[in-house]
Amino acid sequence: MDIIALRPPVGVTNFISLESDVSLANGIYRMRLQHPMLLSVMRHIAANYNNQLYAANGPGAMTAVAQQLGCDRTPVGLDDLLNATNNRTSQPIQPDHAEECDWIALKLPVFLPVLWSRTKYLFQSPKKNETFPPVETLYPESLGVHYNNFQTRALEVQPGSLMQVLASGYCPVIFGKHPLLR
């Protein structure tokens, strides 16, 4: 997944985002190095690999393992993230799985505020005599914007586009060096 971070998740140690109401996203989570949940997911993928079904080996694996272990998958919004992280009250989980369930599910808008089919608009210049409002006001519940590289990899970053604004403000080194962003 391709992410442009809008602001760091201050005080947050572990989180995972919810890709839909029934499936956990596999690309947006934060766990400590060698977290046991990742080993469980890798074992699940090795035992149940499926290259024919979209998302079976990513979100599907995360979801299946979380369900198997009894992890709390109730999503929280940005406003509740610090509270949920600092005051976590876990549901009863299977013995010996407390460490594997040490993460928090996030609501979809936290990292996926733009529907995949609309990400192309992030790359387009504003219409004549129009400016975009500050990006923080467009996506107030977001830590980042997922821009779906598969959909956008061939798109040109147009002058004044939201992508150019994001890149110049949050990725200044890359913005200064990459010829397509200037």
UniProtKB/TrEMBL annotation:
Keywords: Transferase. Coiled coil: none annotated. Transmembrane segments: none annotated. It holds the Pfam family Gb3_synth. One of its GO terms (cellular component) is membrane. Residues 32-175 form the Alpha 1,4-glycosyltransferase domain. One of its GO terms (biological process) is glycosphingolipid biosynthetic process. One of its GO terms (molecular function) is hexosyltransferase activity. Belongs to the glycosyltransferase 32 family. This is Uncharacterized protein LOC108680922.
